[in-house]
Fold:
Amino acid sequence: MDIWRLLFFVPLFSYAVARRNDLYAGYTVHGVHLQDRSDLSVLYDLELKLGLDFWQRGAPGQRDAHIMVSQEKRKEFLDTLDRNGIEHYLHFSNVQNVLDKHDKDVEFWRSRRNSRSFPFEDYLRYTEIDAYLDRIAAQYPEVVTLVNAGLSYEGRNVKYLKISTTNFTDTSKPIYFMNAMIHAREWVTTPVAMYSIYRLVEEVRSNERDLLDSTDWIIMPLVNPDGYEYSHTDDRLWRRTRSYNPAVSETCYGVDGNRNFNVSFNTIGVSSDPCSNIYPGVSPFSEVEMGYVRDVLHEYVDRMQVYLDIHSQGNYVLFAYGDDTLPPNAVELHHVGSVMGAAIDVQKLPEALYYIVGNSAFLMYGTSGTAQDYGQLIGVPFAYTIELPGHGYGHVVPPQYIEQMVEETWQGIVASARVSAIYYQNRN
Structure:
C-alpha cells in the first residue's frame, strides 16, 4: 500500500470506528451508592425492566455501582432510585463522547508502537493474538503445547497453551487454568493472560522458576473471539457471544457466556429477554466457546488446583456460589483469594481501589450459570472470578494502564499459585 493510499485509509478507518459509537448517543452512566441488599434488589428489578447495563456491580457499603442507561429510560431509572431513597450521581454525561475519546487513545497508542513493543501492551485484534500463540508454541516446543479447542460460532479458532516442564506427565504437580474474554467488551482481560504467558515462557525470572517447576499451566486468552471482534468493528460495548438462533429471536444475537454454564442454570441473575446482556441462552453450553472451557475443566479436574476466570471491572476476587450458598472449603477459598488480592494491592496505583474478596452473592448479587461456580461444582478446589480495575473508565480503560494492570495482576497470580500449591500437597 503506497503512502497516499495509507493516508486515505486511516481517516476512513477512524471515521468508521467513530460511527459505531453513534449507538450510544444520549446514553449516560450513573454512580449509585448502595447501603444494603435491598438497594441491590431495586437495581436488579430495574435491570430486568429497563434493560440497564451494569458497568460495575456494586457492593453495599463498600463500592458504588456504575450503570449505563439510555435517554429514553433515564427518567424512570432516576425516579425509581429517588423513591427508594437511593443516592446517585452522574458518572459519564455522554457515553458516545467517552467511546470516541477511547478510540482516539487506542489509535494514538498504536501509532507509537514499534517492532520492539510487546503484544501484551496493546489491545490486539484476534489475528494478532492467534499469531502470538502460534509463535510461542513454535519457538518454545520444550515447554509449550498449542491446543486448538475448536471453532467459534463464526469459525474462528479458539486456542489455548499448555505450559509445562514435564509435558503434563508429572501428576504431583497441580494445574493452574486461567481464561479471559468471556465478555467481549472487557478488552483489558486478554493482556493479563498474554502477560502471564510471557512471564512463564519468554521472561522466566530466577525468583519465579518455582512456578514452572512445581505447577503446570493452561492459558486460554480469548474465549469469545467472535464477540471480541464485533466489539472492535461494530459495537464497542458488545458483551455477549455472536451465535444466532432465529427460533428464539430474529434480531438479537448471542448470549451471556458467563450465564451459560451448567450450574443452577437460568435461575438467578438472568433475563428471559434474548436481547439482554444477562440472557443465559436456551440451554447450558448452547455456546460452543463455553463448551471448550468446560472440556478443559473436565479433562484436568483431577489435578486442577486453581481456575481463574478473568473479567473487568471493579477490583474484586470472587468465589462460589452465586446462589447464596458456600462450598465446604469456603475458608480456604477466602484465604487464597485474599492472598491474591493483597499481592495485587501491594503493586496498585495510589489512586486505585483496593481489592475486595468474598463470595460473589454475599458481596454483590446472585448469579447462576457462571464459569466460576461450574469449576467449583465439578471439583476444582479454588475457582475464582477476578474483576480487574477500571480506574474510573469502566470497560474502556485507556491502553496506558495496561502495563500497570498486567504486572500487578501477575503478582496476584503468582501469590495464589504458590499458596494453593501448599493445599495441593495436603490434598494428595
